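Need tokens for this chain, all 85 residues.
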Amino acid sequence: MKRVLSLATMLVALSYASPASAEVKLGGDVSVRLREVSNNTANKKAYDNLSSAYRLRLNAAADLEGGYIFRALISNEAPNGLGGV
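Here are the structure tokens for all 85 residues:
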């Protein structure tokens, strides 16, 4: 009898609880920039004067029930050398 009573009490308590909800948004961007430095020297090759840089960003935002908000930005930026590295 105690088990049935405790189970009924638990079900009544859970019926008053509202379902949890959350909204999650993901976004971001990627960009690559190519650069060429022009020198008029005869002993340099054309591909030795190229360089590039890239940027990668990921944006995350979550709106949780109860007024809680979570936001994050993950970013990576780095120069790259092309050709004569």
